[in-house]
Amino acid sequence: MKSPMHLILDSYSNPGISLLWKRHGLSIMEQLVPNEFFFTTGDTPLEKLVEREIWSGWKKIILIGTPNSIRRGFNTLMQASYECRSTLEIGFWPLHLKSVVSCISQSSFYLKPFLQVFKSGHTLHVDVMKVQFLAPELETKYFWNDFEINSTLPSAQTTIFIDEKNNELSGKFRCRIAFHDEILSSLTMHPGKLTRTPVLKVYLKREETLTFKERFKQLSMWTPSEDKEFEKEKLLKTGKQVEVQGNWENLTLNVGAIQDSVQSVHFEVERKALPLIIPAKPIQTAESSNNVIPTFSPREVIANNRETTKKVKLHFEE
Fold it and tell me: Do 5-120 and 127-271 have matching folds?
């Protein structure tokens, strides 16, 4: 039985999405033929629309909006019960400013491969990252790509448990727990990358406690080639469960709604939690193509090799 399609457009306070709809809205409606269509307003925000739509289950929900819209919609979906969520088919179409401009400048025929994914793409139940912390009550959030924690006190003692193996840290640092590398999009998702072994990657970047004199000396010895190395975070370990425990509530989170510090954060993989619509073959967009093309700085390479290259004299026979 084919599930009815419900289309949600997060156009409120998003002028780019509104312009896209004015340009291609009729064509999108003709190709998708949704049973229901909703757009956000001041009285009906995105969260309210999504909550209302997922309550009854047994439908295909397509969300079109900015990357921030997708994050908000994703978290609202994940707050629903698994019984309700598992009966849905969810499609996400994130539109950056660059991709909006690209779509508006093209004819409606350009959107046909995108819309075909939502019409006849496969639905795969994929894993997501589940985060729990006390602030002051137990909060549960879900994240697709990563989550950041900062230790803010120089005298703090923090323990990071990764699959029950502990790592002791002192002072300030930034910790990033990463899961999916791909952006949350039904169009560019590679099916093979969603079926691999779920692993949380723990990255660490230490906060150096230098005096003003030491920092000035470090800056005076800095060279451009060392810039990226200096800014790099390091992979600590990988695991299926991660817990970060601090003291004196020294941990701050990158969650806008949570302003207070917390003492501990728990991470785990929620298996097959999101019924995501994916393509049989990922669609190459401008953003995904840029990620594939390696960066190359010819001027720097030529400048570095100019002094080291040996000159070879050519001898010609008469």
Answer: no
Q: What is the CATH code for 5-120?
A: 3.40.50
Of 76, 56, 55, give the one whose Cα is nearest residue 65. Answer: 76
| pLDDT for 11 | 95
Could you tell me which of 114, 44, 51 has the C-alpha nearest to residue 84? 51
Q: What is the CA radius of gyration of the chain?
A: 24
**pLDDT tens string 301-311:** 444 444 544 55
Q: What are phi and psi of 151, to 5 degrees?
A: -95, 120
As a whole number of angstroms, the distance between CA 135 and CA 246 comes to 14
- The secondary structure of 249-276 as a DSSP string is T-EEES-TT--S-BSEEEEEEEEEEEEE
Backbone angles phi, psi at 267, to 5 degrees: -120, 140
Whether domain 127-271 has CATH 1.10.1760? no
* Integer angstrom CA distances of residue 97 from 14, 64, 86, 286: 10, 13, 32, 12
- E strands, the chain, are 5-9, 36-39, 60-65, 89-94, 122-134, 138-143, 146-151, 157-162, 165-170, 173-178, 200-206, 234-239, 241-245, 251-253, 264-278
Identity of residue 18: S
pLDDT digits (tens, 9 = 90+) for 85-143: 999 999 999 999 999 999 999 999 999 999 999 999 999 999 999 999 987 789 999 99
Alpha-carbon gap, residue 8 to 63, rounded angstroms: 5
The domain segmentation of the chain, as residue ranges, is 5-120, 127-271
- For the question of whether the overall pTM of this predicted structure is more than 0.85, the answer is no
- Of the candidates 6, 38, 5, the residue with the CA atom closest to the CA atom of residue 21: 38
CB 174 within 8 A of CB 148: yes
Q: Is the peptide bond before 136 cis (omega within 30 degrees of 0)?
A: yes
